[in-house]
Design a protein that fits this description.
Four Helix Bundle (Hemerythrin (Met), subunit A), transmembrane, Alpha-Beta Plaits, 8-stranded mixed beta barrel, EAL domain-containing protein, single chain, 780 residues, Biofilm_reg_signaling, transmembrane helix
Length: 780
């Protein structure tokens, strides 16, 4: 896992380096090849090690998949545009997250299996050692029984002969050494005079041999006994201590052979342990904190053997492994495994379900902290967040970290709804306070989703752990959508909306692959010259079953699901490719989503599209909304400046509907502002007319072109002309049409303008007076 995380960190570093280079350089691969190739080689080396050490087939498959993608990317790095390169790096990052989760699960299972294997092996070793000791003792006793009596008989004969008695009856049996000795004694009796000295030497030699065998057996037994890893003692049939080893003395102090089982040990803890009945193995914690495992084995003929093993360190290691398996390593909070176990236990007890609330939390702004200040600050922030969360809940409530900047809380209360709401407010207030992380003052927020299992109908599909967590996530999603920094309770219709949204997202992904997207165009009309001055490209989705899907329905889904960047690039390239074949005086306007500005390569992407399609940058106009400028203003303004430096005109859409439009005009000189249709539709209202008049006057003063959208009637057209607005857009002139209808549309609009006598071109003097500083979207 270390090698896998190292490879992922290197991948993230490469992704940031490429993104940073793309913000200031071309999207062409020059300058990227060598550094990217080196980085990919290092990443591949780490992935190879991770693959070789993977514990499961799923881990090997996932790392093999990553290796294949990396090798393929390394081969193509010279030819890939940086945007494509970045997208593939992002996909690889997601694959790494999945591989890390697989490796973590494999590691936990591996440790658990090894622990079980060690326990079973230790037990078998204990039994075998006890059996070996008992067998050695029995063999020693048997040898003594077999050797000593015959030897005593031979010694008696020898003593008798030595005492001068030479009529001893000597009858040797068998062919063993004792029989040979007796035969020799018989021979001695026959030739006592000649061989008395020889017989004495022979007897002494034989006695030494047998004494040496007994001494050797005793030495072997003592060596085996004192080199055991466990302490051992044996009691005979009278419950008297007959054997003990050095390890037992080291564990419990000096012992004395012959003492009873009740008196053998001075420690009352051990005396109590010996007095208990032991079937196989007994674990016991001593007063000094040591944990002893006692194993008892009866001995044939009475008595028993006790073995003692100090398992303190092993027990602590097992506890540590168990803790690691159930807790987050960064914050030491319970992890997802422990959270699921608690929820599963809760679902087994109906009374607990009605008293439980589940809170899902997600930090607002954490990614920005991690990206700007680095992962060490991000980790410290997560630890500090964990401390505040624990301080914000009651005793007995569970606070778990389930991943990244996501946390979950399980509350128990008689009134779970009231307790959850109270806790949510307390947490929001606590996390709104700035964090002091080293020299940094870090501010984040939190959004909270709340699920009350007791409100579900009995037997409902969501009444399982995964369903409860999913419902809490849905409530969290609602809290984020409705402004962040707040909390929301789960409601049944949230799930229905989610299913519909997921179906729409799946269809939209298929639409991109199946070329179901197309562009419609709505004209910009110059009412002074009575001509079409350009077109706005509008994205349409022609679903095979639903027909044309409203952009207001699928654009938010595209932005939230990450599809908008790809779709926006397709819209820009398609519009430019089609517009390059239009007359040179027609401009093309393309809307940019705020989501597209999250890519640091946006300016480079636009430049690449212009180079690829051959469109003159002066014919391209990019429209942005004020909501884009509400976040990361400096970054957005730098990107807009880079786009304008390419020769592209920048237009602010929906001008006047926000709170900071004038401020942004002072910070960035837009080429055009578009009067929002909400003012045009109610132009007869005095306040709306005043706003339109002010916008037009502002545009003259700042030398900014102005266009009005949403013109639907001749009266609206007249009023706008009277105020000095000559460029308009709306259903009065034309609805959006596909590209193949644009030639006819231009002719129809021209004929309509010419036929409508009420729309009169103003005089040259009036035009000079009203539009002296106004620049239109068409060339003069």
């Amino acid at each position: 896992m270390s090698y896998l995380r190292s490879a992922q960190n290197s991948l993230v570093t490469l992704e940031k380096d490429v993104a940073l280079a793309s913000a200031t350089q071309s999207n062409a691969p020059e300058g990227l090849s060598q550094s990217a190739t080196n980085a990919l080689s290092d990443i591949l080396a780490d992935v190879d090690v991770a693959w070789a050490r993977a514990l499961s087939e799923s881990g090997k498959r996932k790392t093999a998949e990553i290796r294949f993608k990396l090798e393929n990317l390394e081969k193509r790095v010279d030819a890939l545009p940086r945007l494509t390169f970045l997208r593939e790096l992002s996909e690889l990052d997601a694959s790494f997250d999945v591989a890390v989760e697989i490796f973590a699960g494999d590691g936990f299972r591996f440790r658990k299996d090894i622990g079980n294997l060690i326990d079973s092996s230790v037990l078998r070793v204990r039994v075998m050692l006890v059996f070996a000791v008992a067998t050695a003792i029995l063999i020693s006793l048997s040898l003594a029984h077999a050797i000593v009596p015959p030897l005593n008989r031979a010694v008696g004969v020898a003593r008798s002969i030595a005492g001068g008695k030479l009529d001893n009856l000597i009858v040797p049996h068998g062919k063993d050494e004792t029989a040979i000795l007796l035969s020799a004694l018989a021979t001695m009796q026959e030739s006592i005079a000649e061989k008395i000295a020889h017989i004495g030497d022979l007897m002494k030699s034989q006695a030494n041999r047998y004494d040496g065998k007994i001494a050797l057996q005793g030495a072997r037994f003592e060596a085996a006994l004192n080199n055991m890893s466990q302490g051992l003692c044996m009691f005979d049939e009278n419950e008297r201590l007959v054997v003990y080893n050095k390890q037992l003395v080291d564990m419990f102090g000096n012992l004395e052979i012959g003492r009873s089982a009740g008196e053998a040990f001075d420690d009352p803890d051990i005396q109590h342990l010996l007095s208990r009945s032991v079937d196989t193995a007994l674990m016991h914690e001593l007063s000094d904190g040591r944990i002893i495992c006692l194993t008892r084995q009866p001995v044939l003929g009475g008595g028993w053997v006790d073995t003692f093993e100090d398992v303190t360190e092993r027990h602590r290691a097992e506890q540590k492994l168990t803790h690691m398996a159930l807790h987050d390593t960064l914050t030491d909070l319970p992890n997802r495994v422990q959270l699921r176990e608690m929820l599963e236990a809760t679902l087994q007890k109906c009374p607990l379900v009605a008293q439980t609330a589940i809170l899902c939390l997600d930090l607002d702004g954490f990614k920005s902290v991690n990206d700007t200040l680095g992962h060490p600050v991000g980790d410290a922030l997560l630890r500090a967040t964990a401390e505040r969360l624990v301080a914000s809940v009651d005793h007995g409530d569970l606070v778990a970290r389930v991943g990244g900047d996501e946390f979950s809380i399980v509350l128990r209360a008689a009134n779970p709804a009231e307790a959850a709401e109270r806790t949510a407010r307390r947490i929001i207030n606590a996390l709104n306070e700035p964090f002091a992380i080293g020299p940094h003052q870090v501010s984040v927020g939190v959004s909270i989703g709340i699920m009350l299992p007791g409100r579900l109908e009995k037997g409902a599909a969501q009444s399982n752990v995964d369903g409860l967590i999913k419902n809490a996530d849905l409530a969290l999603y609602r809290a984020k959508v409705e402004g962040r920094g707040t909390y929301r309770f789960f409601e049944a219709e949230m799930d229905a909306r989610l299913q519909a949204r997921r179906a729409l997202e799946l269809d939209l992904r298929a639409a991109i692959e199946n070329d179901e997207l197309e562009l419609f165009y709505q004209p910009f009309v110059d009412t002074v010259r009575r001509v079409v001055s350009g077109f706005e490209a509008l994205l349409r989705w022609r679903h095979p079953e639903r027909g044309l899907v409203s952009p207001g329905e699928f654009i938010p889904v595209a932005e939230e699901s990450g599809l908008m960047a790809r779709m926006g690039l397709w819209v820009l390239e398609t519009a430019c490719r089609q517009a390059v074949n239009w007359p040179a005086d027609l401009k093309i306007s393309v809307n940019l989503s705020p989501v597209q500005f999250r890519s640091r390569t946006l300016a480079a992407d636009v430049r690449d599209v212009l180079n690829k399609t051959g469109l003159d940058p002066r014919r391209l106009q990019l429209e942005v909304t004020e909501s884009l400028l509400l976040q990361e203003t400096e970054i957005v303004l730098r990107t807009l400046k880079a786009l304008r430096d390419l020769g592209i005109a920048i237009s602010m859409d929906d001008f006047g509907t926000g709170y900071s439009s004038l401020g942004y005009l002072s910070r960035f000189p837009f080429d055009k502002i578009k009067i929002d249709q909400s003012f045009v539709r109610s132009i007869e209202a005095r306040e709306n007319l005043a706003i339109i008049r002010a916008v037009i006057g502002l545009s003259r003063a700042m030398d900014i072109a102005v266009i009005a959208e949403g013109v639907e009637t001749l009266e609206q057209c007249h009023r706008l002309q009277d105020e000095g607005c000559s460029e308009m857009q709306g259903y009065y002139f034309s609805r959006p049409e596909p590209e193949e209808e644009l030639a006819r549309l231009i002719i129809d609009v021209g004929l309509r303008l010419s036929a409508e006598r009420s729309i009169l071109p103003i005089s040259a003097e009036d035009a000079a007076d009203k539009n002296r500083s106004v620049r239109t979207a068409s060339p003069s």
